[in-house]
Amino acid sequence: MGCEGDMAARPHLGRSGALLSGSADGQIVLPVFKEQPHVLLPQQQYKLTSHFDPDETSGGFAHGKDPFLVHHNGVDIYGIPKRSAIPGIDHHEFHLPPHIPDAERESGASRFYQWHFDGSLYNILPPRVGCLLAVKTPKGSDVTVRWDDGTGTEMPIAPGATAIVAGSRALALLDDETRKIRVNSHIEYAPHAFVWMSTAHSTRLGHLLETEGLEKAPDELLPWSSDKECIYPMVWTNPKTGEQSLQVHGQGAFKLYLKNNTDGPEEVVSDLKEVRAFMPK
């Protein structure tokens, strides 16, 4: 299994889902600097984030080794040389049509862009800490986010907001049988997952890819090797508190290793349509 990284400096999640070395302190820390742009500049944001993980060795940006995520027309975060900005993707290119009509969008209708956890999903462990800085956010009335998955579900949210789900709560909401499978199962992510998915369509909800055969073929990707592919547990364990959280990246999922219990037989699911059918269960 790839993505082992530097075991002395970084935490490593093995097939058991247990943390083998390294840990955070188990506390939830949420510094908020609201409406204070002079307090937290981009340079200071990086410094603040690095304090949470002083042993980090990848250069301060976990995606920094993937050219697809590092460079876009030479754009860097202002004031921090060589720390690149990841551009947005137009929803007309990325999401499955039909799209929300312009008139409805102007009236406040919206959708989620992409549900994910931070990580390159290839050759690099996910970051231990995430820090979000909104330099400028839209102002105005709440928008109405539509699931557009046939359920009619909607929710009001501030324009430009980022929705965050507690993985521990998501796990607790599962029925016992589904939870047992999740706790004992793993996901293999596609090599160079973000390049691989770049030609495919997201679902309208933003949690999966549509199975249309539009993903890039293996020989169209940057050079890759199987020993650098990432296989992660579906459920991650806090090393200090023992609390478990569901954490999966539905759009990058390439293969499933499903088990009902630790010592039971393992079912390998490699058909992408079946992989994606399992993910929302």
UniProtKB/TrEMBL annotation:
The keyword Transmembrane helix does not apply. The keyword Metal-binding does not apply. Its cofactor is Fe(2+). Gene3D superfamilies: Clavaminate synthase-like (3.60.130.10). Keywords: Dioxygenase, Iron, Oxidoreductase. InterPro entries: TauD-like_sf, TfdA_dioxygenase. GO terms for molecular function: dioxygenase activity. This is Alpha-ketoglutarate dependent xanthine dioxygenase. It comes from Ophiostoma piceae (strain UAMH 11346) (Sap stain fungus).
